[in-house]
Amino acid sequence: MNDQPVVILTGAASGIGAALLQLLIEEHYRVVASDIIDFPKNKAYHIFKCDQSDPGQIDRLFDFTIEEFGHVDIFIANAGFAYFEKTEVADWKRSKRIYEVNTLAPIYAAHKMKELHKRQSFQMMITASAMSFWPLPGYAQYSSTKAALHSFAIAYRHELENGQHLQLVYPIGTRTAFFDRADSSPQPLLTQSAEQVAEAMLDGIKYKRKSIYPSLLFRLVLLANQILPILRPIVIAIEKRSYVQWLQSKH
C-alpha cells in the first residue's frame, strides 16, 4: 500500500505546475492534479478540473480528493494569472478575478487545510513571486497579489499549530509560456527554468522549508541589497527601460 503523502496541485497543466507534477509522480506521491484547462489523463495521478476563482469548485476539489484517498496531506496552490500591462482602464471585474485566483484562492485553501486538519499536521505551499519583495513596472497589479500572500503568510504562521506548515515559494521570472500569454512581455532581468523552480519546491516539501527561493542569485541579491541599497533602484531602472521599450513597440 502506498503510504506516500496525498497532494493537491493546482495549475498543474503547464509551466511550473507541469514540471512539479512530473517530479511528484517520480517520487510516488499520490496526486490530484488540477487546472482550469484540460490536460492528458494519466494513470499516475488523478485529474480534477477546477476554476480557482470559484470557492465552490475548490470545495469540490477537496471533497474529490478526500473521497479518493481519505485525506489531504499537502496542498500546493500554484495556479495564477499571467499578464504584463499598462493599466489605463479601470476594470473592476478583471481586477477582481485576478485577485480571486492569485490571492483569495490560496488563502481560502489554507483556511480549508486548517479547518480539515484541526490540530493535526499538514503542509500548505503557495507559489508567490520574487516580486513580493521587488515589484516591477508592468507587473503592478500582479506584484500586489503576491505581496499580499507574503504578508498573509508572515501573520498566519503564528496562528498554526506545531506541525502545520505554510510554505511560500518566491520564483524569479520563470521561462515558461507566461511571457507569451502576458501580451508578449519582455522577460525580467533574472530568469530561471520551470524545472529549477519545481526541484526547489520538491526539496521544500521534503524538508518543510518555510521560504523557498529557487534562485540562489536572487537570494544573494536580496542579502546584498541590505548592505548596498542602491542595487534595487538599479534593477528597477533596468526593468523600467524594458517596460518603456515594450510600450513603444505597442504603438
Can you summarize this structure?
The protein is an alpha/beta fold.
Give the domain tally.
1
Strand order of the largest sheet: 3-2-1-4-5-6-9
**Helix/strand order, N-terminal first:** EHEEHEHEHEEHEHEHH
Task: Provide the β-strand percentage band.
Answer: 15-25%
Q: Given this structure, which CATH class is correct? A: Alpha Beta
Radius of gyration: 18 Å
Word description of this protein:
The chain is an alpha/beta fold and 251 residues long. The chain has a single domain, classed as NAD(P)-binding Rossmann-like Domain (Rossmann fold, 3-Layer(aba) Sandwich), CATH 3.40.50.720. 47% of the residues lie in helices and 16% in strands. The strands form 2 sheets. The protein has a 7-stranded parallel β-sheet, sandwiched between helices. Strands 7-8 form a two-stranded parallel ribbon. Strand 4, helix 3 (92-117) and strand 5 (122-127) form a beta-alpha-beta unit. The longest helix is centred in the middle third of the chain and has 26 residues, at 92-117. It is globular, with a radius of gyration of 18 Å. The N and C termini lie far apart (60 Å).
